[in-house]
Amino acid sequence: MDTEKLVDLLKEVIVDHECILTDNADLHSYSYDASFGVHVPDVVIMAKSTIEVSNIIKLANEHEIPVYPRGQGTSLSGGPLPVKGGIVLDLSKWKDKLVIDPGDMVAVVSPGVLTAQINNAALEHGLIYPPDPSSSHVSTIGGNLAENSGGPRGLKYGVTKDYVIGLEVVTPEGEIIRTGGRTVKNVTGYDLTKLIVGSEGTLGVITEATLRLFPKPQATQTLMVLFEDVVVAGKAITNILSSGILPSKMEIMDQASIIAVEDYQPMGLPTDVDALVLIELDGHLAAIKDELKQVIEVCKSVGSREINVAQTKQEEAELWKARKLVSPAIVRVKPTKISEDATVPRSQIPEMFKRLQQIKAKYQVDLVVFGHVGDGNLHPNIIADKRDHEEMRSVEKAVEEIFRAAIELGGTLSGEHGIGTLKAPFMEMELGEVGLEMMKRIKRSWDPNNILNPGKIFPEPGQRLVLTDD
User: Fold this and answer.
1) Alpha-carbon distance 161 to 150, whole Å?
2) Which residues of 46-70 are buried (b: 16+ CB within 10 A; e: fewer)?
3) CA 210 to chain centre
4) pLDDT tens digits for 216-257?
5) Are 135 and 116 in contact (CB under 8 A)?
6) φ and ψ at 75, to 5 degrees?
7) For residue 29, how many C-alpha atoms fall within 13 Å in the half-sphere facing its CB?
8) What is the pLDDT of residue 469?
9) Given strand 20-21, what is the order of strands in its sheet?
10) How far apart, in whole angstroms, are the C-alpha atoms of residue 7 and residue 3?
11) Cα dihedral sign for 233, 238, 242, 245?
12) Residue 274 binned pLDDT confidence (cut-offs 50, 70, 90)
């Protein structure tokens, strides 16, 4: 169908025609995300109601037009890219509902609400929304639901799917359904809520979510532990967790990360160590004091070089600021950042560090390691220049080997970024042929015309990881 005819049909089901974008500049604004690749849609629609989304999907399904749900475009895996043209459904402007119910300890939200806004609203009632992806100040809850996003607090509190108890969803055929509800317990039939969360927009368009909230912890305590060897840091982490202590956060920065941050914004971090680990304990103040002593003892027993405990909230904030500065700091070295999130079992963290060091040396790439090390969710980032095609080909090989290392160690391709387009070629590596086929059957059952976010998760024949334009 040509674009002009498509727009005419859309105008019949959309009240505000200004929400339909067809100008070339607008279309190109929706052609990319925070990953790789540029794919221009035929039309963009800024949706703001469930009925409107339902009508759009019914029209698209009837004419077999691809539809790509999109939030703020912060995806690192190509999640919202319109790889087959069609319609981009922009849900980022749909933010009219953010209701906190302190009695039921839930939040009811529209898909365009920023994730950090939910936590801020909950704090006014002495509650928190625990999932805290690093992009929470700019990413929408709809996008976080689609990708099942995590974050530093995932170690203790879990990821997005652990807090979703109810959804309103428009199916690929345009029907409106509700899954789950407002109760913490619900075992009525199949758990469609958990199926939708993390399906990356391939099974339905989320138009409303009901989220669990938690009581705000009474106190927190942060410490920074320095190590001469990143592998020893990995051993310290596994020993802390096996000792019965569950910190709310455990984040690691390798030497390259530390140096990049110090060059970007000097904070007095030691650049002569191989790694530093930031640990946050939360809960009752008396319990934190006891856990702090145990953590210090464990770290000393494995050979940490130095341990610094934040004495004030300002010092605590400064330590976490250093961790948040890693991403903007490393791209000053080279302009292209390949951010991966291969995740391994906690017991394999030291071995994964060894593998990453070997991969860095083998392919001579600028590999920086940081991330949510407490749950094995590492972020091996490679910084490069995408204009240098020879370098990027080495990067492609290194990334593939990172995935293989994670899977060989009993891990997974993605802990929080999702599969999208970038990791699709490696799905069979983890799931096997039959496992992948079972997922494809679910997709075909829900979306027989394959209109919702086609080209994602499942590999196309002969598809491989490509980070260059040649």
Assistant:
1) 9
2) bbbebebbbbbbbbbbeeebbbbbb
3) 19
4) 999 999 999 999 999 899 999 999 999 999 999 999 999 999
5) no
6) -60, 135
7) 12
8) 60
9) 20-21, 43-46, 87-90, 67-70
10) 6
11) positive
12) very high
**What is the rounded average pLDDT for all residues in the chain?**
95
Domains belonging to the chain, first-starting first, are 3-90 (3.30.43.10), 98-215 (3.30.465.10), 219-328 (3.30.70.2190), 333-408 (3.30.70)
Is a pLDDT exceeding 70 seen at residue 364?
Answer: yes
Which tokens hold the place of 361? 């040396």
Whether 470 has a pLDDT exceeding 80, the answer reads: no
Tokens read off for 141:
């809850």
| pLDDT, average across residues 191-209 | 98
Span 383-417, pLDDT tens digits: 999 999 999 999 999 999 999 999 999 999 998 99
CA–CA distance, 151 with 133 (Å, rounded to integer): 4
pLDDT in tens, 131-165: 999 899 999 999 999 999 999 999 999 999 999 99
Q: What is the 3-state secondary structure (H, E, C) of the chain?
A: CCHHHHHHHHHCCCCCHHHEECCHHHHHHCCCCCCCCCCCCCEEEECCCHHHHHHHHHHHHHHCCCEEEECCCCCCCCCCCCCCCCEEEECCCCCCCEEEECCCCEEEECCCCEHHHHHHHHHCCCEECCCCCCCCCCCEHHHHHHHCCCCCCHHHHCCHHHHEEEEEEECCCCCEEEEECCCCCCCCCCCHHHHHCCCCCCCCEEEEEEEECEECCCEEEEEEEEECCHHHHHHHHHHHHHCCCCCCEEEEEEHHHHHHHHHHCCCCCCCCCCEEEEEEEEECHHHHHHHHHHHHHHHHHHCCCEEEECCCHHHHHHHHHHHHCHHHHHCCCCCEEEECCCECCHHHHHHHHHHHHHHHHHHCCEEEEEEEHHHCEEEEEEEECCCCHHHHHHHHHHHHHHHHHHHHCCCECCCCCCCCCCCHHHHHHHHHHHHHHHHHHHHHHHCCCCCECCCCCCCCCCCCCCCCCC
CA 2 to centroid of chain Cα atoms: 35
Query: In this predicted structure, what is the pLDDT of residue 467?
Result: 85
Question: Among residues 165, 66, 140, 192, which one has the least CA distance to residue 455?
Answer: 66
For the record, the structure tokens of 16 come out as 């505000």
- Tell me the β-bridge partners of 21: 44
